[in-house]
Design brief:
Elements (H helix, E strand, L loop, with lengths): L17 H11 L8 H28 L7 H10 L6 H23 L9 H25 L15
Helix pairs in contact: 1-2, 2-3, 3-4
């Protein structure tokens, strides 16, 4: 494997998850074919080296454009410059699918309120009730005065 810039403390810091790559290899092979561990390790090293090559070229393109963040366009340009033009269309499709999924995930986060099963008014009433209960507990503690025990009483009802 090549030397990576930055001298990482652990080679695994710059590696794909071994189990995931092994699983992908197993899924790609026909059922009657097995893959030796050395071969799987070699494929893992090749995958890591390929990613490092694309990342390095993308970084150079990014720096030439005086940008600080590598964007998808930089990766696509790197693929083309390194002679992997036939992968550009597939990468663009995967990127478009990724963006679509991100948009869908953002939509789920914003609808979290609607998934609680209560209307906004019910949630507001519940919140106000909880505040009132907390206020009463606080006022009761304040009127009873400080107890001889300085540790607070448990709130779950157990002693």
């Amino acid at each position: 494997m090549s030397d990576y810039e930055g001298n990482p403390t652990n080679e695994d810091d710059l590696s794909l998850p071994r189990a995931t790559v092994y699983k992908l290899i197993g899924e790609m092979l026909p059922d009657d074919i097995t893959c030796a561990k050395d071969t799987r390790d070699l494929l893992l090293d090749c995958c890591n080296e390929f990613i490092h090559l694309i990342a390095s070229e993308s970084n150079e393109i990014c720096e030439k454009e005086a940008k600080k963040t590598i964007a998808a366009e930089h990766v696509l340009s790197a693929l083309q410059e390194l002679g992997f033009e036939k992968y550009v269309t597939e990468v663009q499709e995967a990127y478009a699918e990724h963006r679509k999924q991100q948009t869908k995930d953002r939509g789920r986060k914003s609808t979290k309120l609607s998934q609680l099963g209560m209307s906004e008014e019910e949630l507001l009433r519940s919140q106000e009730l909880l505040f009132a209960q907390a206020r009463m507990r606080y006022q009761n503690q304040a009127t009873q005065g400080p107890s001889s025990d300085s540790t607070p009483a448990p709130t779950n009802g157990t002693q």
